[in-house]
Write a structure and sequence with these properties.
Helix content is 61%, strand content 6%. It is mainly α. The protein has a two-stranded antiparallel ribbon with strand order 1-2. Helix 1 packs parallel to helix 6 and helix 3 runs parallel beside helix 4 (81-101). The radius of gyration is 16 Å and the shape is globular. The model has no long low-confidence stretch (mean pLDDT 94).
Length: 167
């Protein structure tokens, strides 16, 4: 894996996040906040907060400085869609800037971090970078299920749609 591939994956990640947010903006507040069976975090709102919180957690592990004001990503701090939609672009921009600065050598390295359970892990940075996109895929899929149930499908958010310029 090289820096160009990572940047392309993160371009996809941001594009797919925007597609989900665009459709979520059309949901009523009640539907957006309502519990829905099968969602790991209860509601469309909980799912989106978790999706972006995951991005922030990894970005903080990779880049300790310059992230003031980017969190917290919690239900309490972001109580509705408007708050999520207002915070998401700044987080996406910080993530994009971080990825843009990565070199092939950065990607080939490892990073040690402490997980919320107190365990310390050391993993290849390339796999951490892929994990963030993969994590997003899972929770965008959950959000898409809820949006589709509301008649607001985000459409095909597959990586190849972006890759082939079918957006």
């Amino acid at each position: 894996m090289n820096a160009g591939h990572v940047r392309r994956l993160y371009e996809y990640n941001a594009w797919a996040n925007r597609r989900i947010l665009e459709r979520a903006a059309e949901a009523s507040e009640d539907a957006y906040l309502a519990e829905f069976p099968g969602l790991s975090f209860g509601s469309l709102h909980g799912t989106l907060v978790h999706l972006f919180d995951g991005q922030l957690i990894w970005l903080r592990r990779w880049q300790a400085a310059g992230l003031d004001g980017l969190g917290p990503w919690t239900i309490e701090a972001l109580p509705d869609f408007e708050a999520v939609a207002a915070a998401a672009p700044r987080l996406e921009a910080a993530l994009e800037a971080h990825v843009a600065a990565l070199t092939d050598a950065d990607i080939e390295g490892t990073l040690t971090y402490e997980a919320p359970n107190g365990q310390t892990y050391t993993d290849p940075r390339s796999l951490q970078l892929v994990h963030l996109v993969n994590h997003g895929t899972q929770f965008r899929a959950e959000a898409a299920v809820r949006l589709t149930a509301l008649g607001l499908s985000p459409g095909n958010i597959d990586f190849t749609v972006l890759l082939r310029g079918l957006t």
